[in-house]
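INFO batch 0412 | record 1 of 1 | parsing
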Amino acid sequence: MFKYAQIWRKAPHYFLAALCAALISAAPSAAQNTADEKQAPTIKPQIFRVGFGLERPPFVFKNHKDGLEIELINAIAKEMKYTVIASFWPNARGYNALKNKSIDIYTIGTQSLADEFYLSDTYMSFDNVLISKGDNPQEISQFSDLRGKRLAAFQGADFLVKEITEIKDDLSLYIETPRQITQIHLLYKERVDFLFSEKKVFEYNLKRAFASGELAPLGRAYKIHRVVPPTLYSAAFNDPILRDKFNAALRRLKKSGAYAQIMSKYDQGFKMP
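INFO prediction complete | emitting C-alpha coordinates
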Protein backbone atom coordinates (compact mmCIF):
# COMPACT_ATOMS: atom_id res chain seq x y z
CA MET A 1 0.00 0.00 0.00
CA PHE A 2 2.82 2.34 0.96
CA LYS A 3 4.61 1.37 -2.25
CA TYR A 4 1.62 2.44 -4.46
CA ALA A 5 1.21 5.67 -2.54
CA GLN A 6 4.83 6.53 -3.16
CA ILE A 7 4.40 5.89 -6.87
CA TRP A 8 1.32 8.19 -7.00
CA ARG A 9 3.16 10.92 -5.09
CA LYS A 10 6.15 10.69 -7.34
CA ALA A 11 4.23 10.71 -10.68
CA PRO A 12 0.73 12.17 -10.33
CA HIS A 13 1.38 14.39 -13.33
CA TYR A 14 1.59 11.35 -15.63
CA PHE A 15 -1.96 10.24 -14.73
CA LEU A 16 -3.29 13.78 -14.89
CA ALA A 17 -1.75 14.40 -18.29
CA ALA A 18 -3.19 11.16 -19.66
CA LEU A 19 -6.66 12.02 -18.32
CA CYS A 20 -6.58 15.52 -19.89
CA ALA A 21 -5.40 14.16 -23.22
CA ALA A 22 -8.27 11.67 -23.27
CA LEU A 23 -10.83 14.39 -22.52
CA ILE A 24 -9.43 16.76 -25.15
CA SER A 25 -9.39 14.11 -27.87
CA ALA A 26 -12.99 13.17 -27.08
CA ALA A 27 -14.28 16.76 -27.08
CA PRO A 28 -14.28 17.41 -30.88
CA SER A 29 -16.03 14.11 -31.49
CA ALA A 30 -18.78 14.98 -29.01
CA ALA A 31 -19.19 18.45 -30.53
CA GLN A 32 -19.37 16.95 -33.98
CA ASN A 33 -22.03 14.48 -32.87
CA THR A 34 -24.08 17.34 -31.40
CA ALA A 35 -23.79 19.32 -34.68
CA ASP A 36 -24.80 16.27 -36.71
CA GLU A 37 -27.85 15.76 -34.51
CA LYS A 38 -28.95 19.38 -35.01
CA GLN A 39 -28.34 19.49 -38.78
CA ALA A 40 -31.61 19.14 -40.76
CA PRO A 41 -31.73 16.29 -43.27
CA THR A 42 -31.20 17.29 -46.89
CA ILE A 43 -34.49 17.30 -48.85
CA LYS A 44 -34.16 16.65 -52.56
CA PRO A 45 -36.24 19.23 -54.51
CA GLN A 46 -39.21 17.92 -56.46
CA ILE A 47 -38.83 18.64 -60.18
CA PHE A 48 -41.84 19.76 -62.24
CA ARG A 49 -41.19 19.47 -66.00
CA VAL A 50 -43.61 22.01 -67.46
CA GLY A 51 -44.38 22.37 -71.16
CA PHE A 52 -45.68 25.82 -72.18
CA GLY A 53 -46.99 27.00 -75.54
CA LEU A 54 -44.94 29.30 -77.72
CA GLU A 55 -44.74 33.09 -77.46
CA ARG A 56 -48.20 34.65 -76.93
CA PRO A 57 -47.87 38.00 -75.14
CA PRO A 58 -49.13 38.73 -72.57
CA PHE A 59 -49.56 35.03 -71.70
CA VAL A 60 -46.03 33.97 -72.66
CA PHE A 61 -43.45 36.59 -73.56
CA LYS A 62 -40.54 36.12 -75.95
CA ASN A 63 -38.02 35.97 -73.10
CA HIS A 64 -39.87 32.87 -71.79
CA LYS A 65 -39.64 34.30 -68.26
CA ASP A 66 -42.66 36.60 -68.05
CA GLY A 67 -46.38 36.38 -68.81
CA LEU A 68 -49.68 35.53 -67.19
CA GLU A 69 -49.47 31.82 -67.94
CA ILE A 70 -45.88 31.56 -66.69
CA GLU A 71 -46.59 33.52 -63.50
CA LEU A 72 -49.63 31.40 -62.67
CA ILE A 73 -47.86 28.08 -63.21
CA ASN A 74 -44.78 29.22 -61.25
CA ALA A 75 -46.97 30.35 -58.36
CA ILE A 76 -48.87 27.03 -58.32
CA ALA A 77 -45.61 25.04 -58.48
CA LYS A 78 -44.15 27.07 -55.61
CA GLU A 79 -47.27 26.33 -53.56
CA MET A 80 -46.71 22.63 -54.37
CA LYS A 81 -43.04 23.03 -53.30
CA TYR A 82 -41.89 21.92 -56.75
CA THR A 83 -39.10 23.39 -58.89
CA VAL A 84 -40.14 24.21 -62.46
CA ILE A 85 -38.05 23.08 -65.42
CA ALA A 86 -39.69 24.86 -68.36
CA SER A 87 -39.78 24.05 -72.07
CA PHE A 88 -41.76 25.69 -74.88
CA TRP A 89 -43.59 23.87 -77.66
CA PRO A 90 -46.01 24.27 -80.55
CA ASN A 91 -49.23 22.69 -79.29
CA ALA A 92 -49.06 19.47 -81.35
CA ARG A 93 -45.48 18.77 -80.25
CA GLY A 94 -46.32 19.68 -76.67
CA TYR A 95 -49.09 17.09 -76.54
CA ASN A 96 -46.72 14.48 -78.02
CA ALA A 97 -44.08 15.35 -75.42
CA LEU A 98 -46.67 14.77 -72.71
CA LYS A 99 -47.73 11.45 -74.24
CA ASN A 100 -44.07 10.36 -74.38
CA LYS A 101 -43.58 11.52 -70.76
CA SER A 102 -40.83 13.95 -71.76
CA ILE A 103 -42.75 16.50 -69.66
CA ASP A 104 -45.04 16.14 -66.64
CA ILE A 105 -47.58 18.79 -67.63
CA TYR A 106 -48.64 20.73 -70.70
CA THR A 107 -50.28 24.01 -69.81
CA ILE A 108 -52.78 24.27 -72.69
CA GLY A 109 -55.51 21.69 -72.15
CA THR A 110 -59.20 21.74 -73.07
CA GLN A 111 -62.03 19.26 -72.64
CA SER A 112 -61.26 17.84 -76.08
CA LEU A 113 -58.21 16.17 -74.45
CA ALA A 114 -60.11 14.61 -71.56
CA ASP A 115 -59.94 11.10 -73.06
CA GLU A 116 -56.15 11.24 -73.42
CA PHE A 117 -54.92 13.05 -70.32
CA TYR A 118 -55.87 13.92 -66.76
CA LEU A 119 -57.07 17.53 -66.82
CA SER A 120 -56.74 19.95 -63.93
CA ASP A 121 -59.36 22.40 -62.76
CA THR A 122 -59.60 25.52 -64.95
CA TYR A 123 -56.72 27.85 -64.12
CA MET A 124 -56.86 30.29 -67.05
CA SER A 125 -59.19 31.38 -69.86
CA PHE A 126 -58.91 32.97 -73.29
CA ASP A 127 -61.51 35.67 -73.87
CA ASN A 128 -61.93 35.62 -77.65
CA VAL A 129 -63.99 38.61 -78.78
CA LEU A 130 -64.88 40.71 -81.80
CA ILE A 131 -63.35 44.19 -81.75
CA SER A 132 -64.24 47.31 -83.72
CA LYS A 133 -63.06 50.90 -83.63
CA GLY A 134 -64.90 53.08 -81.16
CA ASP A 135 -66.60 55.13 -83.87
CA ASN A 136 -68.15 52.07 -85.53
CA PRO A 137 -71.87 52.33 -84.64
CA GLN A 138 -72.74 48.70 -85.35
CA GLU A 139 -73.39 46.37 -82.42
CA ILE A 140 -72.59 42.69 -82.99
CA SER A 141 -74.16 40.00 -80.82
CA GLN A 142 -73.65 36.96 -83.05
CA PHE A 143 -71.41 36.03 -85.97
CA SER A 144 -74.28 36.17 -88.47
CA ASP A 145 -74.36 39.95 -87.90
CA LEU A 146 -71.02 40.12 -89.73
CA ARG A 147 -72.42 39.25 -93.16
CA GLY A 148 -71.03 41.64 -95.76
CA LYS A 149 -68.36 42.97 -93.35
CA ARG A 150 -64.55 42.75 -93.41
CA LEU A 151 -62.96 40.58 -90.71
CA ALA A 152 -59.37 39.83 -89.65
CA ALA A 153 -58.54 36.99 -87.24
CA PHE A 154 -55.59 35.08 -85.82
CA GLN A 155 -54.11 32.25 -87.86
CA GLY A 156 -56.21 29.09 -87.75
CA ALA A 157 -59.33 30.83 -86.43
CA ASP A 158 -61.52 29.42 -89.20
CA PHE A 159 -60.43 25.91 -88.14
CA LEU A 160 -60.74 26.44 -84.37
CA VAL A 161 -63.96 28.50 -84.32
CA LYS A 162 -66.83 26.79 -86.12
CA GLU A 163 -68.86 30.02 -86.26
CA ILE A 164 -66.16 31.62 -88.42
CA THR A 165 -66.08 28.56 -90.67
CA GLU A 166 -69.83 28.95 -91.17
CA ILE A 167 -69.81 32.70 -91.88
CA LYS A 168 -66.54 33.41 -93.71
CA ASP A 169 -67.95 32.85 -97.21
CA ASP A 170 -70.56 35.54 -96.49
CA LEU A 171 -67.96 38.15 -95.54
CA SER A 172 -66.81 40.78 -98.03
CA LEU A 173 -63.22 40.14 -96.83
CA TYR A 174 -61.67 37.57 -94.51
CA ILE A 175 -57.98 37.68 -93.52
CA GLU A 176 -55.96 35.58 -91.09
CA THR A 177 -52.62 36.91 -89.80
CA PRO A 178 -49.93 35.02 -87.84
CA ARG A 179 -48.76 38.29 -86.22
CA GLN A 180 -51.45 39.78 -84.01
CA ILE A 181 -49.92 43.26 -84.29
CA THR A 182 -50.85 43.15 -87.99
CA GLN A 183 -54.52 42.92 -87.02
CA ILE A 184 -54.18 46.19 -85.12
CA HIS A 185 -52.86 47.97 -88.20
CA LEU A 186 -55.61 46.52 -90.39
CA LEU A 187 -58.31 47.78 -88.02
CA TYR A 188 -56.95 51.25 -87.31
CA LYS A 189 -56.07 51.88 -90.95
CA GLU A 190 -59.68 50.87 -91.73
CA ARG A 191 -58.82 48.00 -94.01
CA VAL A 192 -61.13 45.75 -91.97
CA ASP A 193 -64.22 46.50 -89.90
CA PHE A 194 -63.72 43.94 -87.13
CA LEU A 195 -61.03 41.82 -85.52
CA PHE A 196 -61.46 38.45 -83.84
CA SER A 197 -58.82 38.21 -81.12
CA GLU A 198 -58.14 37.26 -77.52
CA LYS A 199 -58.94 40.39 -75.52
CA LYS A 200 -55.71 40.59 -73.48
CA VAL A 201 -53.60 39.88 -76.58
CA PHE A 202 -55.37 42.68 -78.47
CA GLU A 203 -54.96 45.17 -75.63
CA TYR A 204 -51.28 44.33 -75.23
CA ASN A 205 -50.55 44.78 -78.95
CA LEU A 206 -52.65 47.95 -79.18
CA LYS A 207 -50.77 49.56 -76.31
CA ARG A 208 -47.46 48.54 -77.84
CA ALA A 209 -48.43 49.97 -81.25
CA PHE A 210 -49.33 53.37 -79.82
CA ALA A 211 -46.35 53.47 -77.44
CA SER A 212 -43.90 52.77 -80.29
CA GLY A 213 -45.46 55.42 -82.52
CA GLU A 214 -46.53 52.85 -85.12
CA LEU A 215 -50.06 54.28 -84.89
CA ALA A 216 -51.19 57.86 -84.31
CA PRO A 217 -52.52 58.46 -80.76
CA LEU A 218 -55.81 59.90 -81.97
CA GLY A 219 -58.88 57.71 -82.47
CA ARG A 220 -57.58 54.80 -80.47
CA ALA A 221 -60.93 53.95 -78.79
CA TYR A 222 -62.33 50.48 -79.42
CA LYS A 223 -65.46 48.46 -78.70
CA ILE A 224 -65.71 44.84 -77.54
CA HIS A 225 -68.44 42.57 -78.95
CA ARG A 226 -68.87 39.24 -77.14
CA VAL A 227 -70.07 36.52 -79.48
CA VAL A 228 -68.58 33.33 -77.97
CA PRO A 229 -68.01 32.27 -74.36
CA PRO A 230 -64.41 32.31 -73.03
CA THR A 231 -62.30 29.24 -73.75
CA LEU A 232 -61.43 27.60 -70.42
CA TYR A 233 -57.97 26.12 -70.09
CA SER A 234 -56.79 23.35 -67.81
CA ALA A 235 -53.34 21.84 -67.44
CA ALA A 236 -52.95 18.34 -68.91
CA PHE A 237 -51.18 15.55 -66.97
CA ASN A 238 -50.24 11.90 -67.35
CA ASP A 239 -50.28 11.36 -63.59
CA PRO A 240 -53.58 11.81 -61.68
CA ILE A 241 -51.76 12.18 -58.34
CA LEU A 242 -49.68 15.08 -59.66
CA ARG A 243 -52.86 16.56 -61.15
CA ASP A 244 -54.54 16.39 -57.74
CA LYS A 245 -51.57 18.13 -56.07
CA PHE A 246 -51.81 20.87 -58.72
CA ASN A 247 -55.53 21.33 -58.06
CA ALA A 248 -55.00 21.55 -54.30
CA ALA A 249 -52.26 24.16 -54.75
CA LEU A 250 -54.48 26.14 -57.14
CA ARG A 251 -57.31 26.19 -54.56
CA ARG A 252 -54.91 27.42 -51.86
CA LEU A 253 -53.60 30.12 -54.20
CA LYS A 254 -57.15 31.34 -54.86
CA LYS A 255 -58.06 31.27 -51.17
CA SER A 256 -54.99 33.32 -50.23
CA GLY A 257 -55.76 36.01 -52.81
CA ALA A 258 -52.45 35.47 -54.67
CA TYR A 259 -54.27 34.14 -57.75
CA ALA A 260 -56.53 37.20 -57.97
CA GLN A 261 -53.51 39.47 -57.58
CA ILE A 262 -51.77 37.92 -60.58
CA MET A 263 -54.92 38.03 -62.70
CA SER A 264 -55.56 41.67 -61.80
CA LYS A 265 -52.05 42.61 -62.88
CA TYR A 266 -52.76 41.36 -66.39
CA ASP A 267 -56.36 42.51 -66.56
CA GLN A 268 -55.37 46.10 -65.89
CA GLY A 269 -51.83 46.22 -67.22
CA PHE A 270 -52.51 46.49 -70.95
CA LYS A 271 -55.66 48.56 -71.26
CA MET A 272 -55.36 51.89 -72.98
CA PRO A 273 -55.83 54.90 -70.66
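INFO post-check: Residues 1-11 have pLDDT under 50 and may be disordered.
INFO record closed
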